[in-house]
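Service request form, structural biology core

Requester: graduate student, group of Dr. S.
Request type: structure prediction, single chain
Budget code: on file
Notes: please return the result as structure tokens.

Sequence provided:
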Amino acid sequence: MDVYKTHGAFSWSELMTADPAAAAAFYAELFGWKVEEMDMGTGPYRVLKIGDTSVGGIMDTPPGAAGMPSAWGCYVTVDDVDATARRCAELGGKVLMAPTDIPQVGRFAVLQDPQGAVLNAIRYAPG
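Core staff response, request fulfilled:
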């Protein structure tokens, strides 16, 4: 199964934190993850790897979320982000961030279930 193409599969974990460099050093030491930096146009993004397999990332807390506590977020692959966001709202959830494109990555939305838990839905760009 390819988690990046399978609807409903957990496919990525991401940490947003005020100190991504310190967090990357901590988790690299804790789990033995390799950390590779890449530029996403908003500053360095740290990709976490086990061997050659990317398993997650660490990013700086965006300016619009300043003061938010550091938190891990999970991504679930979907066939259609827009349809998933609509269905979330129909089922009593909330769309916290409307479907948005990430250049060269895919399209995602931030969803909240009726109990308050937050999850990201994503459709990855081909390639």
